[in-house]
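We were asked to recover a plausible sequence for a given structure. The inputs and outputs are reproduced exactly as logged, with field labels preserved.

PROBLEM: sequence recovery
POSITIONS: 249
GIVEN STRUCTURE:
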């Protein structure tokens, strides 16, 4: 590989590494950050940016989920139900989104994230890593997370994690593991759809993915080094920052 080519790829590798680290730390795909950067810096249209970001997200989500599962095994039955409902809802919401005002959707989503953030800052009984999941209500989380991904293309993990942590009483790391189980199949299905439509830059997405895979494990390790309360508050801060960023778009 020539030095010129390496230098041209270095910014993408560094960006991918940062997104992979954040994805591992918070159990998210990173699309909420990658997509606007691909639009503004690389001049992609929205559809191409979303498809390209998914190339990075799918392997990073898989790696992060595997790492979380090794540290915090979860109920696979609940995870599968969550994933199935989320994937189906993502598809349906994506069809609905075609006729909706994206600016209004972003305003509503920002307000919803702010409400979730406030809930995460409120005190609640401490949760243990083995807290059982009330599986009968689990599809509601899939509906919320899948609906977000379908309507906006991002935010499934951002929505699912605080719901699982606050309302299901799960440890923050367990909630992030289950959120990854929701987002991973939704993202894979979305990638296949974007690829069929030709809205994917495999080179840029692949380089971002390589950078992300190199750093995702470090993010997961740091997530488990922090106390659970600290992780909840950090995630709440991420929700607020995301809400403000979406309002600025």
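RECOVERED SEQUENCE:
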């Amino acid at each position: 590989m020539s030095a010129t080519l390496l230098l041209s790829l270095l910014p993408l590798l560094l960006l991918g590494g940062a997104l992979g680290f954040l994805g591992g730390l918070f159990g998210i795909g990173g699309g909420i950050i990658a997509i606007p950067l691909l639009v503004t810096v690389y001049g992609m249209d929205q559809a191409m940016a979303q498809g390209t970001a998914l190339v990075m997200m799918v392997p990073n989500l898989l790696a992060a989920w595997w790492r979380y599962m090794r540290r915090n095994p979860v109920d696979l039955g609940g995870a599968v139900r969550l994933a199935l409902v989320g994937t189906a809802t993502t598809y349906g919401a994506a069809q609905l989104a075609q006729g909706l005002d994206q600016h209004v959707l972003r305003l509503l989503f920002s307000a919803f994230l702010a409400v979730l953030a406030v809930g995460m800052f409120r005190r609640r009984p401490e949760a243990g890593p083995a807290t059982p999941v009330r599986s009968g209500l689990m599809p509601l989380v899939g509906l919320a997370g899948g609906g977000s991904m379908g309507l906006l293309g991002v935010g499934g993990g951002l929505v699912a994690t605080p719901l699982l942590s606050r309302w299901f009483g799960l440890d923050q790391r367990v909630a992030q593991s289950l959120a990854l189980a929701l987002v991973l199949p939704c993202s894979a299905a979305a990638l296949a759809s974007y690829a069929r439509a030709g809205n994917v830059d495999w080179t840029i997405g692949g380089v971002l993915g390589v950078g992300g895979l190199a750093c995702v494990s470090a993010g997961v390790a740091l997530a488990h080094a922090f106390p659970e309360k600290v992780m909840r508050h950090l995630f709440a801060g991420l929700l607020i920052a995301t809400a403000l960023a979406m309002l600025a778009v």
